[in-house]
Design goal:
disordered N terminus; 41% helix; cell outer membrane; single chain; TPR-like_helical_dom_sf; coiled coil; signal; three-stranded antiparallel sheet; Glycan metabolism protein RagB; mainly alpha
Length: 572
């Protein structure tokens, strides 16, 4: 792993540059390894592990995977100054790989996760060497670190499918001897499941310090891991079985969280994307950010408009396809004709077309209020390259420049807005999905989905122009089988469930991974490209290759590092 090599190289350089007389003197500003084994110092090592989980450098991010999960899922265009701006991400978006296994950002994606997990393992080894008498928080901190490891490895699993599983007991001189195919697909899922199951059994229901996962957060992540693992794949990434035992546990875990965690849906969808409500009623576990650079880090993104208040850099522009999905007929999604007729990508269409108000929480176009400020109107000049990517901009990840948690850091900008990794709305939809697949308690699944929709219908108070008129023709209603939708069969319920996930979590980095776990990525994305390339010419060569593009290739740099030990993913 690159991170481990860098540590070793740094150590060699320090030792080779030291003269013999210096070896007897403890350098100033350097902490000896053995000094880090005291409980007070171990706490700091654990904090360092937490800190890196919020790493957000634009091409070495541990934050929200909006390009991996949103851009590759067709929810948004890459954006920026054109296809050559972060050109590798353009290849991710179009699935056209000129040098598919030897590219820098992909290697960074792999590397940064192992830097993060390396911090977890360093802390884990030190905690485990202490007794409960020395360190009363020993078991809880072990559970927290195993939760963090599961979180980190979850993204390796979603992005690469196979990776070398290294834990705190793996000797450092064996790191480059661990193959990425030592464990099967299901065995790797099993490792993540073990971590979250352990954490769920140890962590308290309530944590005094925000940002630390609770027992309910561990149960939620366990449910997420189980629902991914339940869609069992063959060697070519085809879904060949849906594991009912795992789905049964998902349903039970989610019910426990819904009934007993004390969490509830926020009354307004907007509250999930405003600093003043973070760590609130709906949030189950969030990566913590702050504008106080003395105590934390900013959540800095390249997705801001290029107007004078922000400055850079115009990435992550919602696709026409994604925005059209918010159209409604009789208050429910226009499943058959959503992507034809009037395009829901401009102010006039918002006023004329029945739509789900969640679109206005997710995207903006010129002439519309920005981030719930009726007098702060988005202009055409806010968009960096409209001739390539159109005029849409994302809003969920951003805060208003008038917000107390906005901070310019020139040439970029940052915010103290947390990233919610786990929210109650997702737990509710996981339970609904499990029940539908199991064909059990179908009425309960309908109730859960409708509860999400009812919250959406009530989330319009902030969606107004300065004169008080609504910013769109809002019409979202619960599903009423036999009235505004067909009978609630398994087939229709699954369609409704999947659509609801898209509407609720658009641009939050989840959709591509959903398509892969459901086994419908090729079908959905090639249908998307067939239409979207007529709207955006840069997509003319885009094509998803089934049995290859479900996962990234293993970076060639990493394969070379282990002298060919790693097995390349199918299709590459």
């Amino acid at each position: 792993m690159k991170a481990l090599n860098l540590f070793g190289l740094g150590l060699i350089l320090v030792l080779s540059g030291a003269c013999e007389s210096m070896l007897d003197t403890k350098p100033q500003g350097v902490v000896a390894d053995e000094d880090l084994n005291e409980p007070e110092q171990v706490e700091k090592m654990i904090n360092a592990a937490y800190s890196f989980v919020g790493q957000n450098h634009f091409n070495k991010q541990m934050g929200m995977p909006y390009e991996e999960g949103t851009v590759r899922g067709g929810e948004a265009y890459k954006g920026g100054s054109g296809t050559n701006d972060n050109a590798e991400r353009n290849r991710w978006e179009t699935f056209t790989y000129m040098q598919p296994t030897n590219v820098g950002d992909l290697d960074n994606l792999w590397w940064v996760h192992y830097v993060a997990v390396g911090r977890v393992h360093d802390a884990l080894r030190r905690v485990k060497n202490l007794t409960a008498e020395q360190y009363p928080l020993r078991e809880q901190r072990i559970a927290e670190l195993r939760f963090l490891r599961g979180h980190i490895y979850m993204y390796m699993k979603q992005c690469f499918k196979f990776f070398p599983y290294i834990d705190e007991d793996t000797p450092q001189d064996m790191y480059d001897k661990v193959s990425n195919d030592a464990l099967s697909d299901q065995e790797l899922w099993g490792k993540l499941i073990e971590d979250f199951r352990f954490a769920a059994g140890v962590l308290p229901d309530v944590q005094a310090e925000v940002g630390r996962p609770t027992g309910f957060a561990a149960k939620a992540y366990l449910a997420k891991t189980l629902i991914f693992a339940a869609y069992e794949q063959d060697d070519n990434h085809n879904v060949i079985n849906i594991n009912r035992e795992k789905l049964t546990e998902v349903a039970a875990l989610c019910k426990d969280i819904i009934d007993n965690s004390g969490k509830r849906l926020a009354p307004d969808f907007a509250e999930n994307f405003l600093c003043e409500y973070e760590n609130g009623t709906e949030s189950i576990w969030a990566i913590q950010y702050t504008t106080d650079t003395q105590t934390g880090r900013l959540n800095s993104w390249l997705v801001s408009p290029v107007n004078s208040d922000y400055g850079c850099c115009g990435f992550l522009q919602p696709s026409v396809n994604m925005m059209n999905r918010y159209k409604t007929v009789n208050g429910v999604p226009d499943f058959e004709n959503f992507n034809s007729g009037i395009l829901l990508d401009n102010k006039a269409a918002f006023a004329a077309t029945p739509m789900d108000p969640r679109l206005m929480h997710t995207a903006a176009v010129p002439g519309m209020p920005w981030k719930y400020e009726p007098s702060y109107i988005m202009g055409e000049n806010w968009v960096r390259t409209p001739e390539v990517y159109g005029y849409s901009m994302s809003q969920k990840l951003l805060v208003s420049p008038t917000s107390d948690c906005f901070k310019k850091t020139n040439p970029f900008m940052g915010a103290g807005l947390n990233w919610d990794v786990l929210r109650l709305d997702e737990v509710m939809l996981w339970r609904a999905e499990a029940l539908i697949q199991l064909e059990q308690e179908m009425d309960e699944a309908l109730r859960l989905i409708n509860e999400i929709r009812e919250r959406a219908a009530n989330s319009t108070d902030r969606l107004k122009f300065a004169d008080g008129t609504p910013t769109g023709r809002f019409d979202v209603q619960p599903y009423r089988p036999g009235q505004n939708c067909p009978a609630w069969t398994k087939e229709f319920a699954l369609q409704a469930l999947r659509w609801e996930r898209h509407l609720e979590f658009a641009t939050e980095g989840k959709w591509f991974f959903d398509l892969v776990r459901w086994g419908i990525a090729a079908e959905q994305l090639n249908a998307y490209f067939a239409v979207e390339k007529t709207r955006r010419s840069y997509l003319r060569d885009a094509n998803f290759t089934k049995n290859r593009d479900e996962y990234f290739p293993i970076p060639e740099v990493q394969i070379s590092y282990v002298k060919g030990l790693y097995k390349q993913n199918a299709g590459w």
